[in-house]
Design a protein that fits this description.
Elements: E1 3-4, E2 7-15, H1 19-30, E3 35-39, E4 52-53, H2 55-64, H3 67-73, E5 75-76, E6 79-84, E7 87-92, E8 110-111, H4 114-127, E9 132-134, E10 137-144, E11 147-153, E12 159-169, H5 176-181, E13 185-189, E14 195-202, E15 209-213, E16 221-225, E17 231-237, H6 248-258, E18 266-275, E19 278-282, E20 286-287, E21 290-292, E22 298-299, H7 307-328, H8 336-358, H9 371-374, E23 387-388, H10 417-421, E24 426-431, E25 442-447, H11 450-456, E26 459-463, E27 469-473, H12 478-484
Parallel strand pairs: 2-3, 2-12, 3-9, 6-15, 12-21, 23-27, 24-25
Antiparallel strand pairs: 1-2, 4-8, 5-8, 6-7, 10-11, 11-12, 13-19, 14-17, 14-18, 15-16, 16-17, 19-22, 20-21, 24-26, 26-27
């Protein structure tokens, strides 16, 4: 960035270095877009909070080049075991166990504490040449027709002004940016009872199960072993309306009161937080050159494991569109599709998580999750970038707007469609068709028969950089005009 006195410039200013901001920063960095990522806190978030990575999020992380590290440090979800009067009552699965499917390479939810997910994203950002400006807070912003001017305060109290083409608010449910630009957020209390979440050391429990006391006096309690650590995540609901005691002593008393474990079984309390489950949605996700993403745009109950995953999908949707505008000369109207696509998805996810929470909280069996929480079926069939031009499709046919499935390309080398998609480019698949000439910056491949043809059908398919089908057609003449919308000519 160019520096002159206390002013600097960047193409995108990202406020908030949680999973949303870090994912967006990684995606922009690999596209060659200059971005400044600032975080008010002095370090990354230290807690486990969002610990489940849905199958679709794992596909995003594979594209960003950090899935191997995610899988190395995490594990599949363990089976739940219920306790009553100090005795085990039986085991059950919170998540479904998927059958092998060549179109879905990562079928099961993967457990990884949020703090570790953020560390891995931060490490990946550094590999791309980026960094986080910690201890840096947004103190104000002004919008102009061609730029945003943001006032930042650094860790030493020094102020500076950053000029950016666009600003992305990834600064959480109490977003300073959202309030500054005047976007309302409306919602409801999902549950009047408060909850406690903490990362604690526990003696006396095996680490092969997620332990649950659903009938405990005062409210249910769960202890989940966190992979690649010696800690457990504690989650407790409270029947009383008063806020839970988040001190180490308070956490120990809660465990002793609701389980067969004594206070002495609870060692270090690494992090603890109290909250009241809410569901809320911003009225809009954009104000001029400012975009909302993640919790700044939508707040969820933890039921269903949707919040962190939906936030990462926001960043993945917005990143490639900013890249096409800033690096390929696409019309700025492309950015309008961010809100048009993501706001309906966020509203649907809010409904899912709220319904799961009210189905019985953490009582045994009440939160069993299914395909809707895996986010593989979420898409943009009614979105402004979706063009389905193949007439007479069967009812169960894959259509434009849906997630582009994976498929093996050969049996010997183990190559997959996702390898073709990996990277910041647009891909054109010709399945059962000749591959027509394509503009620079578009990767093309012809595939005939096999799993790919069974999954897609025959046609020419434009796979967007975020892995969704944009255009599906039989006519090569449809391609140039469609690709031009992404600045590809």
């Amino acid at each position: 960035m160019a520096h002159a006195q206390n002013r600097s410039e960047t193409e995108v200013l990202i406020v908030g270095a949680g999973p949303t901001g870090l994912t967006l920063a990684c995606d922009l960095a690999r596209r060659g877009v200059s971005a400044l990522l600032v975080e008010q806190a002095p370090a990354l978030f230290p807690g486990s909070r969002g610990k489940g990575l849905q199958p679709r999020t794992q596909e995003v992380f594979e594209d960003l080049g950090l899935l191997a590290a995610v899988h190395a440090d995490g594990r599949p979800y363990p089976r739940m075991v219920s306790w009553e009067n100090g005795e085990r009552q039986g085991e059950w699965d919170l998540v479904g166990r998927a059958e092998p499917d060549p179109t879905v390479p990562f079928p099961e939810v993967w457990m990884l504490p949020q703090w570790r997910t953020q560390e891995l994203l931060h490490e990946r950002l550094r590999e791309f040449g980026g960094e986080v400006a910690f201890g840096t807070a947004l103190s104000g912003l002004d919008q102009h027709p061609d730029r945003v001017e943001a006032r930042l305060t650094g860790p030493d109290g020094t102020g500076r002004t950053v000029t950016a083409r666009y600003l992305v608010a990834a600064d959480g449910g109490r977003s300073t940016v959202r309030r500054t630009v005047g976007i309302p957020m409306t919602g409801e209390q999902v549950d009047p009872h408060p909850a406690l979440v903490a990362d604690v050391e526990i003696d006396g429990l095996d680490r092969e199960n997620w332990h649950c006391w659903p009938k405990a006096s005062g409210g249910p309690l769960l202890l989940c072993p966190l992979p690649s650590t010696t800690a457990f995540q504690l989650f407790a609901q409270f029947d009383a309306a008063r806020d839970p005691d988040t001190s180490a002593e308070g956490v120990r008393r809660t465990v002793a009161a609701r389980t067969h474990l004594p206070e002495s079984a609870v060692g270090a309390v690494h992090w603890a937080s109290g909250f009241r489950p809410r569901a809320a949605l911003a009225e809009r996700f954009r104000e001029g050159r400012v975009f909302l993403a993640g919790d700044a745009a939508h707040i969820h109950s933890p039921a269903g494991g949707q919040g962190l995953n939906t936030s990462i999908q926001d960043a993945y949707n917005l990143g490639w569109k900013l890249g096409q505008v800033l690096r390929h000369g696409a019309d700025e109207a492309l950015l309008d599709s961010y809100e048009q696509e993501r706001l309906p998805v966020a509203a649907d996810v809010l409904e899912i998580s709220t319904r799961l929470h009210r189905a019985g909280g953490v009582r045994a069996g009440a939160l069993r999750r299914g395909p809707r929480t895996e986010q593989l079926g979420l898409g943009y069939e009614d979105g402004p970038l979706t063009v389905e031009a193949r007439p007479g499709l069967p009812e169960d046919a894959l259509r434009a707007g849906e997630r582009a499935p994976d498929a093996p390309l050969d049996t010997r080398g183990g190559r997959r469609l996702f390898e073709l998609f990996r990277g910041p480019h647009v891909t054109v698949l010709a399945i059962g068709h000749p591959l027509p000439p394509l503009p620079a910056g578009v990767r093309g491949a012809r595939v005939d028969g096999g799993v790919a043809e069974r999954a897609y059908g025959r046609g020419l398919f434009v796979v967007r950089p975020d892995g969704y089908l944009g255009l599906a057609t039989h006519d090569p003449a449809d391609l140039p005009g469609y690709l031009a919308r992404f600045g590809l000519r």
